[in-house]
Design brief:
This protein is mostly helical. The protein has ten helices and no strands. Helix 2 packs parallel to helix 10, helix 3 crosses helix 8 and helix 5 runs antiparallel to helix 10.
């Protein structure tokens, strides 16, 4: 159910899978496992979505962001391995709340060119392997570049595909993909496919503005619940 809902949001808007699924998934399998499973399922989702919308990709931007993200991913993996589960749960919850508020307020990073791509890609890479929430820096940055919706959706999906595959490789190298993570990912896979198809059917038929506002409320509520649970643990 969690995977289907998160997948439908990303299929419809191009963003939101990790932000939506990780906070509630923490309660089911734990913070560190949730990061790994979210990356695996997110990779499958992004590959499926990119196969449908690849024609609008701004490949130069996507590849530059990806190159910088590769540099940041090992640092994010180190954080995942070094930080205890309770602290990581708090970091994830705060990250969701902060970025959701920034996105809701329409914050834009008015950087452009190679320097902007490299900085944002690096930050996204760190978040990819530490929290599974690599999207917000890229989302805010692309909004500042005033990309059209089709280019935004396809370019960020291409970036997600490349970065998630490298992230999964690093998780495997770090011994984070165990039997439990594979089982949880396998269980969630049909729901991801269902969400991908459902989101595509809803695309252009739903008021995206209202939908995103509803998603933002869900994000804050789920993240607040995860934060409260970590503090009271």
């Amino acid at each position: 159910m969690l995977a289907a809902g998160a997948a439908s949001v990303q299929s419809l808007t191009g963003i939101g899978f990790g932000l939506i699924i990780v906070p509630p998934l923490i309660f089911v399998i734990g913070a560190k496992e949730a990061v790994v499973v979210s990356n695996i399922l997110g990779a499958v989702l992004s590959i499926g979505l990119l196969s449908r919308i690849h024609s609008g990709v701004h490949w130069r931007m996507a590849l530059t962001l990806f190159a910088a993200a590769i540099v940041g991913m090992p640092l994010g993996l180190w954080l995942l391995l070094a930080v205890d589960a309770r602290t990581l749960q708090i970091i994830i919850a705060v990250t969701v709340i902060v970025f959701t508020v920034l996105l809701a307020r329409g914050l834009r990073l008015h950087m452009a060119g190679l320097a902007g791509d490299l900085f944002v890609g690096l930050a996204s890479g760190v978040l990819r392997t530490s929290t599974s929430m690599s999207g917000p820096p890229v989302i805010i940055y692309m909004q500042g570049r005033q990309m059209d919706s089709a280019g935004f959706r396809s370019t960020i999906t291409a970036f997600f595909v490349m970065s998630s595959l490298v992230g999964i490789g690093l998780f495997a190298f770090g011994g984070r993909i165990d039997a439990d993570a594979l089982t949880a990912s396998t269980v969630g896979l049909p729901a991801v496919v269902l969400g991908l198809v459902g989101g595509q059917l809803l695309y252009r038929k739903v008021d995206e503005g209202r939908f995103r506002r509803a998603v933002q409320v869900i994000l804050v509520v789920s993240a607040t619940a995860a934060l409260t649970g970590a503090i009271l643990r």
